[in-house]
Amino acid sequence: MDKQSLEFFRSLLHERLEELIGKADITRTSMTNDSNALFADPTDRAALETDRNFILRIRDRERKLIAKIQAALERIEDGTYGICEICGGEISEKRLRARPVTTMCISCKSRMEALEKAKGL
């Protein structure tokens, strides 16, 4: 992969990382604010807890994505970004644009998903 493409993906990954960290900070701040957590009505309190649980599940998924983004940035630094971890072939830029954190080419990922599906039956 050429330097210009690597810089594009580095920038894209850094932007996404900053966005996710910003969301996590906002969530942390809002959840530590106890002023809106006091409800006399148990139904309101249950609704708040349900909303918080939903947000925490989303943030947990985003935390996992942050780890994948950091790993992708490390691969850019060590020169292995865009190389399939299964076959060692090049991952297409089209695939990387769709999923910049991917570690597999479309062929290997398709085979893996087919195997997982077959095992699940």
Question: Could you please describe the fold and organization of this structure?
Answer:
The chain is mainly α and 121 residues long. It folds into 2 domains: 81 residues, DksA, coiled-coil domain (Four Helix Bundle (Hemerythrin (Met), subunit A), Up-down Bundle), CATH 1.20.120; 38 residues, no CATH class. The chain is 73% helix and 0% strand. Helix 1 runs antiparallel to helix 2. The radius of gyration is 20 Å and the shape is flat.
The N- and C-terminal alpha carbons lie at a distance of 39 Å
CATH architecture of the largest domain: Up-down Bundle
Query: What proportion of the residues is helical, as a percent range?
Result: over 70%
Low-confidence stretches: none
Count of runs of 4 or more consecutive helical residues: 4
> Which sheet architecture does the biggest sheet show?
none
Strand tally, please? 0
CATH topology of the largest domain: Four Helix Bundle (Hemerythrin (Met), subunit A)
Our Rg estimate from Cα atoms comes to 20 Å
- CATH superfamily assignment of the largest domain? DksA, coiled-coil domain
Our count of domains comes out at 2
The helix-and-strand class reads: mainly alpha
Q: Strand-residue fraction?
A: under 5%
Q: Indicate the mean pLDDT.
A: 91
